Amino acid sequence: HHKGRIRRSGRTSAAAVFLFSSVGDSLLFFPAFSTSISAMNLSPDIPIDARALYVLNKLEEAGHSAWLVGGCVRDAFMGIKANDCDIATSAPWQETSSLFKKAGHNVVETGAKHGTVTVLVESVPLEVTTYRVDGVYSDARHPDTVVFADTIEDDLSRRDFRINAMAFHPSRGL
Question: How far apart are CA 88 and CA 167, in angstroms?
Fold first, then answer.
């Protein structure tokens, strides 16, 4: 696994952004720029679906951490409306399911053995997955086993080193 690092210094995070190219079996990384996340002033201009923010807030009000992950982060940074939003959380899938059912939402156990449930908010499906680290992929699509993890960093380390290894939170940044 390739793992990105964010160096924390006080309340400001420094991040390096890389452009990458695949050549044969190798990935080549080219530093594009380095800046502080807080200096980028990301949150105010990023279009995030209100239903996804509702799910983030609901999970955090219940004492869990939660982040937007994957393609919706990419789309938000490109300034376009995401077709769907995926959320990674510290909440076990059972707690996520219970929390949103109690709030009156339909919840579908789409991939419970992998920690994923789909919460329907105003008929819009939002996939919510417990932080995890994946085992071997014998079918190249779904892990044979998963181990649930405690942090977003652990979860991101399992994702490919492209846009899927990004997470965004409106008040904590990238």
Answer: 8
Residue 111 has pLDDT above 60, yes or no: yes
Distance CA 59, CA 148 (A): 17
Rg (alpha carbons) of the chain, rounded to whole number: 16
Ramachandran angles phi, psi of 99, nearest 5°: -60, -45
Whose structure tokens read 């995890």?
Answer: 132
> Starting at the edge strand that comes first in sequence, how are the strands of the sheet with 86-89 ordered?
106-111, 116-121, 124-130, 86-89, 66-69, 167-168
Task: Calculate the CA dihedral of residues 64, 69, 47, 41 and round it to 10 degrees.
Answer: 80
CA distance 171 to 37: 11
CA dist 4 and 27 (Å) reads 14
Interval 42-64: pLDDT, tens:
444 567 788 999 999 999 999 99
Torsion of CA 37, 38, 41, 43, to 10 degrees: 80
Evaluate the CA torsion angle 143, 146, 152, 154 in order and state its sign.
negative
Phi, psi of 54 (to 5 degrees): -60, -45
